[in-house]
Write a structure and sequence with these properties.
two-stranded antiparallel sheet, about 80 residues, 2 strands, mainly alpha
Length: about 80
């Protein structure tokens, strides 16, 4: 992958997710056969819960941690 920061997915100030056409790593192009799930990309980008919910109905990684922790304390 190129060292150019602009070749990787990023967010605009208004919250728009940008996946540059020039991105040589096709795994970031979630709409392609070889692409990762959008939730995997958002996880890599360390997306907060509010932004996460704008793009997917999948559970945010922090929710899985919270569920596991609450289950452990009940046991």
């Amino acid at each position: 992958m190129s060292d150019n920061k602009d070749d990787k997915p990023y967010f605009l100030k208004d919250g728009t997710l940008v996946i540059p056409f020039s991105c040589p790593d096709h795994s970031y192009k979630y709409w392609k056969k070889e692409g990762k799930k959008l939730s995997e990309i958002l996880t890599e980008m360390d997306t907060d819960k509010e932004t996460w919910k704008k793009f997917t109905t999948d559970h945010h990684p922090d929710e899985a941690k919270e569920t596991a922790e609450s289950g452990e304390s009940k046991g």
